[in-house]
Structure formats: structure tokens, C-alpha cells
Amino acid sequence: MRGRIATIAAAAVTLVGLITFFLFVSVPSSPASIFRRPAQPVPGVEPYKGSNGSVAATPPKPKDASGDPAARLIVKVKLDAEDASWTQKLEPSWQHNIITVEAMYSHAHPKAHRPDKGRVANAYLMWIIENYNNLPETLVFIPPRDTLEKHHFGFHNPLLNLKIPFIQESGFANLRCPTQKSQTTCNDKVLKPMQPPYELRTLEEKVPKSWHNLFGNDKEVPQQIATVLGNAFAVSKAQVRKRSVEEYLKYWTWLNNTIMDDDSSGLLMEYLWPTVFGKEAISCPEKAQCECDLYGRCDDI
User: Fold this and answer.
1) What secondary structure does DSSP assign to 248-297, as a single string?
2) 251 lies in which domain range?
3) Where is this region: Disordered (predicted)?
4) Taking a C-beta distance cutoff of 8 angstroms, is the pair 149, 262 a contact?
5) What predicted TM-score, i.e. pTM, was given to this entire model?
6) How far is it, in rounded angstroms, from Cα 107 to Cα 278?
7) Domain tally for the chain?
8) Is the CB of residue 273 less than 8 Å from the CB of residue 233?
9) What's the CA gap between 29 and 288, in Å, rounded?
């Protein structure tokens, strides 16, 4: 009897030892992690997956002048599965170029080195550089559709009504007007590089250095930068040509070499397009005047 008890006790000790061994080998060292549930995916947000390639090593180059450029052209950047066929319905008034970018992930690790730095800005700058010698008289840039946007802004009807003489006269205009009366903050979307609030510190603290890298050390950093965000704008050929192709290449090089994450560098470029195309750092037209100038909707003037 005593022998059986000893045998059972030895077997129990051995079993406990094996269980303990496999627990320590097969699970993370944190005790809490043994009972932790797997992280649930967040709707609409892709996890960081790492880069699938390196930053483009060869800068874009301008193509030789060829033929007669279109009078009006839409540069539409779209995601892989996005339907951009609406641009065809604007012909012959508008010609179009479609640029497809991969929807890798929407929020990258802060120090990730992305092959698509500021995806939309990168596509815009590459197009401008490559087509600098073949620019249309009026150029419209449209970003991919934001699938998380509560109220989708369709561009088909606005472009049919876009006042081309106004674009030629002003040189540059956001295609979205402010949704409230504000000529200083553009719906409260304002950067204060010299007084960064806590919640925007990551972006705003990097503005001064980025500003000098882009526009030169002799160009003073503004106290405030404000515009209607969205990456959708119209610009004239004459306004694009006010900067040399070397300047656009400088912007592209900065974008592809910055250690800023993709979201931050892309967002900063949204704020800076008016500056790139000759407008003041605060570029916030009054809502009613904006809709009248751009689309001829002047009932509220």
C-alpha cells in the first residue's frame, strides 16, 4: 500500500513539473498574459504590418514637352479597390490621370520607414515633377475617398460648376469651403508652431524645422497656419510654374527622407499646399464668398 502511495505521489510531482515547464516555455513571461484575451481589431483601422519595401531611391524626373496638354485635367489618386469611373463622366470638359496607391495601413508606427511617405502628397509631387513641361492650364488634384468620412463630398457636380476664370485669377483654391464663418481658423483647424498645445505637440513641434527644410532658413515660420483640410484643390499652370521643378523635387525629397510618420507628414502637407502655391499661411475664405467664387452659388452673398 505504502508503495502505491509513493508511486502516485511521484507521478503527481512529475505531472506538476511538466505542466509548469510547458507553461513557462509556451507563453509570455507576464503572468497576466496567460489569461489575456487576444486584442480585438478596431473597425476601419488597419494594424501596423511593417514596410514591404524601401523608399524609392530614384527621384522623379520631368518628361520632355510633347504635344498639346489638356486645357483641364483631373489628377485623381485612388486606393486599390476604389471606383474612380466618375471622372470619365466629366469628359470632354475634363481629362483625367488616375494614380493608384496601396491602402497598406492607416496608422503607422511613429518610426516606421514607409515606401509611401505621405501617400497622397507623394503622388501629387511626383506627378507635378514628371509633368512639369506638359502642364494643363487648369489642374485639379483629388485624393482617395475617405471611407471614414461621415458626409462624403462628391466632386462630380462641383467640378462641372467650377469657375475656371476664378482659378486662373487666384492661382490656387481649395475645392472644399469652410463649413462655418471663420476667416482665421478654417473650422478650428489651425496649427500654432510656436505655441503647440499638448494634444498636437507631435506635429506642431516639428513644423519649424520642416518649414525651413521646405522653404529655406530665410523664410520666417508663421505664428499660425490654417487652411481647409482635405487634399482637394485646383491650381493654374501659371501658379505651378512660379516654383521651379527643383523646388518641387526638394519637397519630394524631404517627404521621402523625413522620419515623421506617414500620417503626420501627409497632414503637414495638407496644411502647406496653399503656401506651396503662393497663398498666405492662413488661407481661410469666408464660407458664402468661397462657394460663390468657386461654384457660382451666390444666393447668400
Assistant:
1) HHHHHHHHHH--S-HHHHHHHHHHHHHHHTT--SEE---HHHHHHHHH--
2) 72-147+154-176+229-295
3) 43-68
4) no
5) 0.75
6) 31
7) 1
8) yes
9) 61
127/84 Cα distance (integer angstroms): 18
User: Which pLDDT belongs to residue 39?
Assistant: 41
* Integer Cα distance of 124 and 122 in angstroms: 5
CA-CA-CA-CA torsion sign (23, 27, 28, 31) = negative
| First-residue to last-residue Cα distance in the chain | 103
Residue 263 lies in a domain: yes
Over residues 20-27, the mean pLDDT reads 47
CATH classification of the domain holding 88: 3.90.550
Provide the residue count of the chain.
Answer: 301
Domain membership flag for residue 250: yes
One-letter amino acid for residue 26 of the chain: S
Compare 185 and 146 and report the one with higher pLDDT: 146
Band (pLDDT 50/70/90 cuts) for residue 172 is: very high
pLDDT tens digits along 235-293: 999 999 999 999 999 999 999 888 887 778 888 999 999 999 999 988 888 888 999 99
β-strand pairing of 95-101 with 190-191: unpaired
* Sheet hosting strand 225-227, strand order edge to edge: 190-191, 225-227, 282-283
Burial class of residue 77, CB neighbours in 10 A (0-12, 13-18, 19+): buried
Write out the three cell numbers for 69.
496638354
Cα of 100 vs its chain's centroid, Å: 14
Q: Is 203 inside any structural domain?
A: no
**pLDDT(107) > 80:** no
The helix/strand/coil state of 237 is helix
Residue carrying the nine cell digits 497622397: 120
H helix runs in 144-261, sequence order:
156-161, 164-170, 201-204, 207-215, 237-240, 245-257
